[in-house]
Specification:
mainly alpha
């Protein structure tokens, strides 16, 4: 409600519940805006918040940024209506949970492939509060697995074609990073594949298979956006992917997507929400129906979430379980194509990240080195470069700068042709460490810093 003086009493009440001053609200707002890549909103200060409380309405994407900042503080979803901004979309509406699955896909596709709408979409906030899955979401969406009415427009050959596209773009992503080809993939998903989903199917099995494959394609769009630091966009694709997957009744694929959402939350520094999503991927049929290789993938990301949450012992147990699951995988297993990348090198990389986060730097270096040693670098170039970047950073934390520079030099060599914000971030982190050595006349440091600067300029 508005006060007699026109003030926004709703917003004032929620800020009071959060126990924040206007300056603290502004600081939290700026953090969310920065994380979401919206530089024009990072200048919000105490006076802006005071004006909003006094009755002035935040413009543009500010209401959603403000809701997200307050949601993180309170540990629940704060909607625009709750803070006196009725008429603005809620996080649930933005992420499509309340919309029909195909309508949500169409809306996301239109926003992603149109340059102007993509700019608006890119200014949305990554929503931590929206990581809480709605109660009964799986059962509700799985009940939609009916055969659609109408003439059949897609056959088994069409399904195989879509699967081939998923496989091709998955390999491009692994080699070149999420900055290559994602828009083309989004266009294919929201045009050709969407038309199949809207058509009729000759039987329920074909329909479920097409929805599952479309879900995997939407997941891949999300993963590529995540790798390219388009976090709010990635979250929306992951959400649509989950909805498609639920309609297909594909529990292991849903676990695979939730694992990716947990990974994103860990990387963005939200361990509690990451742990909830990782635990969901390990629950019930998501884990039980998955092949051993995919179980290991779920498990190692669960371990990373535990490590990020500070639970050292549980993280260690989870790592051992993931190792056992991968050891149980055999060449004769029936495995989905999406797990083609996950083998010893990938397990070692994620294990190293978990060990790093619980403070075992020696163990982390050992596992990063194992990952480097066992990976097929020509096929998995992007991840190999990131692994080397992380290895260099851990060496630097131990004061072993010669080893750090050697790893970073190899990472830069691998990054030629790679478009990945995660790889780029390792270079930014490297330059930050090297900054304290500039001016000391160290040739190796100077050369490495120059190469890093050129890479950053080339990929800006």
């Amino acid at each position: 409600m508005a006060g007699s003086d026109g003030s926004n009493r709703h917003l004032a009440v929620v800020i009071a519940e959060a126990g924040w001053s206007h300056a603290q609200v502004a600081a939290a707002f700026t953090r969310v805006a920065s994380e979401s890549g919206i530089p024009e909103l990072t200048g919000v200060g105490r006076s802006h918040v005071s004006h909003w409380v006094a009755g002035s309405k935040p413009s543009g994407r500010s209401p959603l940024i403000l809701c997200e900042a307050l949601s993180r503080r309170l540990g629940r979803v704060v909607t625009p209506a709750e803070i006196g901004l009725a008429g603005e979309p809620s996080p649930a509406q933005v992420l499509g949970w309340d919309a029909d699955t195909l309508a949500a896909l169409a809306d996301l596709g239109r926003a992603d492939v149109d340059a102007e709408r993509r700019r608006v979409l890119g200014s949305a906030a990554y929503s931590v509060a929206a990581l809480a899955l709605p109660a009964g979401w799986w059962e509700r969406l799985a009940s939609h697995t009916r055969v659609r009415a109408g003439a059949g427009t897609a056959g088994w050959g069409d399904l195989e074609a879509v699967r081939e596209m998923v496989a091709a773009f998955s390999r491009i992503d692994q080699r070149r990073g999420g900055g290559h080809g994602r828009t083309a993939l989004a266009r294919y998903l929201t045009s050709d594949v969407a038309s199949y989903l809207h058509g009729g199917f000759s039987d329920a099995t074909l329909r479920a298979a097409m929805f599952s494959t479309a879900g995997e394609l939407a997941y891949l769009c999300g993963w590529m956006a995540f790798d390219n630091a388009e976090h709010a966009l990635a979250q929306r694709y992951f959400t649509v992917a989950l909805k498609l997957t639920a309609e297909a009744g594909d529990a292991p694929l849903a676990g695979h997507i939730m694992r990716a959402m947990a990974h994103q939350a860990v990387d963005l520094g939200h361990p509690r929400q990451a742990l909830g999503m990782a635990a969901a991927s390990m629950d019930g049929e998501h884990y039980a129906r998955a092949c051993p290789r995919e179980r290991a993938l779920f498990g190692v990301v669960h371990a990373r979430a535990l490590a990020a949450s500070g639970d050292r012992h549980a993280a260690t147990r989870a790592l051992l379980r993931a190792e056992d699951d991968l050891a149980a995988a055999t060449p004769g297993d029936e495995e989905p194509g999406r797990v083609f990348f996950f083998a010893e090198a990938s397990l070692a990389h994620e294990t190293a990240c978990a060990l790093r986060d619980i403070g075992d730097l020696t163990g982390s270096i050992r596992e990063f080195q194992r990952s480097v040693r066992t990976r097929k670098a020509a096929t998995f170039t992007r991840t190999h470069a990131v692994t080397l970047g992380y290895l260099g950073a851990v060496h630097a934390r131990q004061g072993a700068m010669d080893e750090a520079c050697a790893a970073w030099s190899q990472a830069l060599e691998m990054m030629d042709g790679v478009r990945s914000a995660r790889a780029r971030q390792t270079v930014l982190d490297m330059r930050s460490v090297l900054s304290s050595f500039r001016g000391r006349g160290l040739r190796a440091v100077t050369d490495l810093d120059t190469r890093a600067s050129r890479y950053l300029a080339h990929t800006a």
